[in-house]
Every structure is written in C-alpha cells, then in structure tokens.
Design goal:
Growth Hormone, Chain: A, mainly alpha, disordered C terminus, globular
Length: 526
C-alpha cells in the first residue's frame, strides 16, 4: 500500500465514521439536550425526536444526489466540500442557543454528511483494486462497527462530564484532520464520460421518493398510524418512487443510469440489502428493547450483549473482504446471512423470566427457567457476529465491483439509500404486526382489560414491561406477568420475521450473485 493509498483509506474511514458517530453519540446526548436547551415551539420529547430525525432524514433523502454529485463534479472536490460543510454545521450545532436552531442546523449537517458516505466508498473503489480493494472495504466496515460500539460509550462519558455540546464539537478536529488528508493526498477522480448537464430534476424526484418514504414512515409510526399527514407524505414518496424509473429512461443524462440495473450483481445486491438490512434493523431495535424492558437488563448491560458481534465485525471484516475479492463474494454473502438466520432463531426461543421475576410473580408450582446470558444471549451473539462479519465486506465488494468505476459514487449512494429506507419501511410494517400480537396476547390473559382504549395503550406498550416490587397486590402482579408474557410472544414474532428476511437474503445471494464479476480487473470495469 502506497502512502497516498494509506491516507486515502484513512480519510475515507474517518469521514464516514464521523457521519455514523453523529447518529450514535447524539442519541446519548438527547436527554440532556431536552433538559437544557430552551424551546418556544416544541415540547421536550418532540424536540429531542426532531433533533434525531432531522439529521437522518436529510442524510437519507440526499444520498443519491450526493453520490451523483461525487461522480459528476469530482470525488475529491465533493468529499472535501462535505467535510468542510460537516465541520461548519457541527460547530453551529455545538453553539446552538435554542432547540429550533439546533434542529435547523441538524438538517444542514445531514446534507453535508450525505456527501461523505457514498463519497468514501467511491474513493476506495477508484483507488484500490483486487484483494487490496476487498481488504479496504473490510477495514471500512470494521471501522464503522467500531464507531457504533465505542461512540455511545465515549460520547456518553464526555456528555456526562462536560456538556451535550461536546457531542457536536468533537467532530470539528476530526473533520480538520480528514480535510487535510483529502487535500494533501487524495487524487481527483470523476466520471469522465459525463459530458451533458447534471440531472437536477432526477435529483428532486429521488429526494421526494426517499425523503417522503422515510419521513412518512417515521412520522406515522410516532403517531400510531392515525395522522393523515403521515399517509399523505408516504403517498408522495410512493408516487415519486414509481415515477423514478420512467423518468430515468426518458432523460438524456439521468441521475441514476438505468444501465446500472442491467448488472446482475448490482440488482441482486440491492435486493439482498433490502432484505438483510431490514432484518438487522428489526433485530437491533427489538432485541435491545426486549433485554432492557422485558428481561430487566440495565442500558449498559444491554449494550454489552451486542459487544461480541461488534468485535467480530471490527477484526474479521477486512479478512473476509480480501477473501471475497479473491474467491468471489457469492459464498460469503450466502453463508453469512445463513449463520445470522440460525442465531436469530436462537433469540426467538429466549424466555423472558429472570430469577427475580420468577420468585416475585411466578407460580411456585410451575418452574419457568430464567433467562441466562451465557445460554440464551451469548451463543446467538457470537454466531450472529461471525455471520455479520462474513457478509458485510463481501456485499460491499459485490456492489462496488459490479459497476464501472465512473459510476461508483451513485452506485454506492443507491445502495446506502436502500439500506436506510428499506429497513425503516420493513420495521414499521413489522411493528404493526408486533403491536397487534402484543395486545391480542394481553387481552387473552387479561380479558377484562380494554386494550383498544387509548389511555391503556399509552400506559402499556409492547416489550415495555413496568418494573414493580413483589409487594404489589396479586391483581397488579398478574397484569405485569401478562405484559411480560405477551411481550415475549411479540419479541419471538419479531425475531421469526427477521429470520425469514435473513433466509430470503441468503437464498437471493446464493442464487443471484455471480463470482466472475468480482474477479475482473479494474481496467475492465472502467
């Protein structure tokens, strides 16, 4: 690896890591932001929600536009512009005097971040070839995992000891370092075949499609699918999505070249991304909620349950990325989700009873084995982590080697958009099923409880069992026990759905991916 290649890899990892970091560290800071930042428009919880959503929605909606801008105007130029924008907007977020301004600055920060995620992969694609490229993709994936694991821990310590503003201001020196490396060492690359004008109409339609689906899903789920505005936004996103392929075939220089989808590996990889990342989103959300609110783990203990998976991803991704570049990605993209499928099936049989719950509320005549970390959580976490490590870098390799290098930015952006919007849609639909399962199970156990009552639903929600001492009256203890059992059934349903998505992803990759594409030298793909 040359010096320029090493610094390019470092800059790409650092820049994308900053974007992922801001999705995790800020979550830790939200409670303190809600307490300390004044607002004349939003309530505390609503303001916290928009601080988080504003960033993710803008980031998701502008990913494809950003990828196309990278290819059209130059990857180094747009990457540097994104870093400078992220630096300035992080500084503005860190000094924001009100909740309203913080939300506005988060919108701008998401727009800057959109340039960095597809830009980082496009730079790696243009810089590396062969096994070195697969290893670079693996290091990129491992670093992203490290950011996800360590970000909340380090950020939480800084927020607790200093201020919530540190969650944003810590980006400034990181952006400066990455910007210096970009300007000094990264060579410029772009789509040399692009001679026409930029497709701004296509960019607007893509933004409406991705933004409409993302915002409509999140907004509707927050309001339990009872607000017509959420459905209207979803309808706009759906209409734009349906119109997009027709528009792309009519444009002379379309934002997303239809030729990309003539690549078998590109199309199959995006389908499997929708399935597999939908499962990842469901597992991450429902498993964390289950182990905390139903089993009774602390937040720190719940975080440690995912540590083995993250460590495997950190240390094994580069190795599997290189192997995928050498042997082809198909077998890894099939074996990885298959192992994850087995792990999730193990999660789907976890009992929700701990020793404390069993002795406080259990029937002495009926033995219910308590949940054990070593038996119920750790084995699944280990197998899941190995499967994830086997799958992630080869999936990136299959994607980025399936298209010409001059389309690397937009190809990466399309896949990133699918990996963000798809899981949100899948999770929203699954949450509807989980909610129905929970309230049906609760009604079966407590027929006198009107589970359709709005006040009951505000008080009792899926996978969120109220903690209570053993001194509660029998009827209250019985309700809590019913909540726990109904939540466990709902969690099992979520894991079974996630397992089905993983199985579908494994089969899709095994049948659809071809290895010869990954083995072609970069000169044949230009």
């Amino acid at each position: 690896m040359t010096r320029a290649e090493g610094w390019t890899l470092f800059a790409a990892i650092l820049a994308s890591g900053i974007v992922f970091l801001d999705s995790t560290v800020v979550n830790v800071a939200l409670p303190r932001i809600g307490r300390e930042l004044p607002s004349s428009v939003f309530g505390v919880l609503e303001g916290q929600s928009y601080v988080y959503i504003a960033y993710l929605l803008t980031l998701s909606a502008l990913l494809v536009l950003a990828g196309a801008l990278n290819d059209f105007f130059g990857r180094r130029r747009m990457f540097a512009f994104g870093l400078a924008g992220f630096l300035v907007t992080s500084l503005l977020c860190g000094v924001a005097p009100s909740m309203e301004l913080l939300i506005a600055f988060r919108v701008l920060q998401g727009a800057a971040g959109a340039l960095l995620v597809p830009g980082s992969l496009a730079l790696l694609t243009a810089t590396f070839t062969g096994e070195a490229q697969g290893r670079a993709f693996g290091l990129w994936a491992g670093a992203s995992a490290a950011t996800t694991i360590l970000g909340p821990v380090i950020g939480g310590a800084l927020v607790d000891t200093l201020s919530w503003r540190v969650a944003f201001l810590m980006n400034v020196p990181l952006c400066l370092v990455a910007l210096w490396m970009t300007v000094t060492y990264i060579r410029e690359s772009r789509d040399e075949s692009a001679t026409g004008s930029f497709d701004w109409l296509g960019a607007a339609v893509v933004a409406l499609a991705v933004g409409g689906l993302s915002f409509g899903t999140i907004y509707s789920q927050q309001r339990e699918w009872r607000d017509p505005f959420g459905f209207a936004t979803l309808a706009i996103g759906l209409v734009a999505t349906v119109a997009l392929p027709f528009l792309m075939t009519m444009r002379r220089d379309p934002l997303i070249p239809p030729s990309l989808f003539r690549s078998r590996n590109f199309s199959v990889t995006n389908i499997s991304t929708f399935l597999i990342y939908g499962a990842l989103y469901v597992i991450g959300y429902f498993l964390t909620l289950f182990v905390q609110s139903t089993i009774g783990y602390t937040a720190a203990a719940a975080g440690l349950t995912s540590l083995p998976s993250g460590l495997f991803l950190m240390f094994l991704s580069s190795r599997f990325g290189a192997l995928a570049a050498h042997f082809g990605p198909r077998r890894f993209m099939a074996i990885g989700p298959a192992l994850m499928f087995l792990a999730v099936l193990w999660y789907a049989r976890i009992p929700a009873t701990t020793e404390a719950w069993r002795f406080a509320f259990g029937d002495p005549s009926t033995y219910v084995p308590p949940t054990s970390y070593l038996i119920d959580l750790l084995p699944a976490s280990l197998v899941y982590g190995i499967g994830l490590s086997i799958m992630v870098a080869p999936l990136t390799t299959a994607l980025m080697t399936s298209v010409p290098v001059h389309n690397a930015g937009v190809a990466s952006a399309v896949n990133n958009a699918i990996s963000r919007v798809g899981p949100q849609l899948a999770s929203a639909l699954i949450f509807v099923a989980i909610t129905a399962s929970f309230y049906a199970g609760l009604h079966d156990r407590v027929p006198s409880l009107d589970v359709s009552d709005a006040d009951v639903r505000r008080t009792i929600s899926p996978l969120n069992v109220v903690r209570a001492p053993s001194s509660l009256p029998p009827e209250t203890a019985g309700l809590i026990q019913a909540e726990r059992e109904a939540s466990t059934e709902a969690f099992h349903l979520a894991m079974l759905v996630a397992a089905a998505l993983l199985a579908a992803g494994a089969v899709t990759n095994a049948v659809g991916i071809v290895d010869d594409v990954a083995k072609k030298p970069a000169t044949e793909r230009r």
